[in-house]
Amino acid sequence: MNKLKQFILMLVMMFAVFLPLSNLTVKADQTDTSLEDIKKSGKLVVGLSADYPPYEFTAKVDGKTEYVGIDIEIAKKLAKDLGVKLEIKNMSFDSLLVALETNKVDAIISAMNPTPERKESVDFSDIYYSGKQYMVINKKDASKYKSLADFKGQTVGAQNGSLQYNLVKDQMPGTTVKGLSKLNNLVLALQSGKVSGIAMEEPTAKAYVANNSQLLAFDPGFSVSSDQTGSAIAFRKNSPALVAAANKTLAQIKKQNLLDTKYVPEAAKYMETTTKNNTMMSYWTYFAKGIEYTLIITVTAVFFGFILGTLLSLMRLSENKLLHSIAVCYIEFIRGTPLMVQVMFVYFGVGAVIQSLPALVAGIIATALNSAAYIAEVIRSGIESIPAGQTEAARSLGMTQKDTYRYVVIPQALKNIWPALGNEFVTLIKESSIVSIIGVGDLMYQTQLVQSATYKGVMPLFIAMVIYFIMTFSLSKLLNLFERKLNHG
Description:
InterPro entries: AA_ABC_transptr_permease_3TM (IPR010065), ArtM/GltK/GlnP/TcyL/YhdX-like (IPR043429), MetI-like (IPR000515), MetI-like_sf (IPR035906), SBP_3_CS (IPR018313), Solute-binding_3/MltF_N (IPR001638). This protein is of the alpha/beta class. The protein folds into three domains: 31-130 and 230-277, Periplasmic binding protein-like II (D-Maltodextrin-Binding Protein, domain 2, 3-Layer(aba) Sandwich), CATH 3.40.190; 133-218, Periplasmic binding protein-like II (D-Maltodextrin-Binding Protein, domain 2); 282-488, Orthogonal Bundle (MetI-like fold), CATH 1.10.3720. The chain has 18 helices and twelve strands. The strands form three sheets. It has a five-stranded mixed beta sheet. A five-stranded mixed beta sheet has the order 9-8-10-7-11, sandwiched between helices. The protein has a two-stranded antiparallel sheet with strand order 2-3. The longest helix is centred in the middle third of the chain and has 34 residues, at 284-317. It starts with a helix and ends with a helix.
C-alpha cells in the first residue's frame, strides 16, 4: 500500500512539473510579433550544427575560433538587415527544431530542407541554395558501389533528422540506415567499416572528399521532389513578418549573386586553409577550453549535488511520511530516467519557461540533480551502516538528534561511504560529456569541433580519451589520499 501511495505521489509531482510546460505552444490566432521581438531584444539567435561544410563549420581566423561558411554569411547579412546583433548557438542537428519550438533560438540556418513534414511545425523562407543528394564511400569501394541498388544488404549512414536519412529509408530497400547526430562521426564510421556509404548533400559531400583522399563522392540517383530539395531558413510557426524579412534578405543575396561570387568561394578558402593547418597541436586551445568547461561543470555539480543528496538522504530516513515519500519519488524517478533526457528537458523544457537560462547553467543543473539522487543513496547506506548502538549511546549522553548526526553518525558514515562517493565524483567527469548535446562547450563538444574542422575522426577522439583519463586518474589518486587520511584519523 505504501508503494502505491508513493507511485501516486510521483505521478502527481510529474503532472505538476509538466502541466505548466504544456501551455507553451504558440496559438495560430496570436498576433505576430516575431520581427518586433527580435528588434526589441537587439539580437538574432540562430541555431545550427557546425559540422556541415561548406554551409557551416569552424575555422581559425587570426588565432581565434570562428564559425564560417555559407549559412554563417547569410545569418550575418540577415542580422545586419534587421539592425541587430547575431548570436550563434551550435548544437546537434536533431535538436535544432526542439530549440526553435522552445524559443531557445529565433531561426535555424543549417542547410535545412523544407520538407512537408517540417512545414507542419515551422515556417520556412524561400530556398536559398539547392544541390543534389550524393553518396560518400571509401575510394577502395569505387567499383563496388555505383548506384542505390548496389547498397542492398549494406548499412548506409545519414545524419539524424535529415532529408538524407528519410531518403535512405524510403528509396534504398534492403539496406539498414544508421543515423548519427554528427557527420564527422559518420565519416569515422565509414572509414572503420561500420557503414558502406553516407548520404550527404552535394556541396557537403564534395567538401569532405576534397579534404580526405581516401573518400569518393558520386550521385547514386536519389529521387527528390521539388518541395524537398534545397536549403531554407526555418522560423517558428506563424511568423510571417520574420519570414518576409528573411525573404527580402535572400532576394538581395540572389540579386547580387553573393552565393557564387562571395559566400561559396570564401567557404572554400577557409576549408583549404584548414586543410593545410589541421595538425592536432594547432587546435590545443579547443581541448584547453573543453577541459575548463568540463571541470566547471563537474566541480559545480558535485558541490550542489552533494548538498542536495545529503538533504534527500535525511529526508528518506525521516519518520515524516511526506518528506520520506518526496525523497523516494525523486530518487527513483531520477535514477529511472537517462541523464541525456534530463539535460534536454532542463534546457528545452524548463528553459522554455525561463528564457534566459544558458546552456551551461542548464547542463550544470541537470547534472547536479542527477548526481544528487545517487549521492543520496550512497549517504543513506552509509548512515544505515552505523550500528544503532552508536546513536542510542549518543542520545543517552544527552545529545540532540541533530548533534548525534553531526558529531557521531555523519563522521563515521563518511569514512564508510568515501570510496563509493569518490567513484560518483569520478563518474561525473565522464558523464558531463552528455551536456555537449545542447551546445555546452565541454571537452566532448570541443572534440567534435576539432573533428569537423580537421576532417579527422580518430585522432581527436584519442586525445579526448587521454585527457579524460588524466583527469579521472588524477582525481582518483587525490581521493585515495584523502581516504587514507580518513582511515588513519
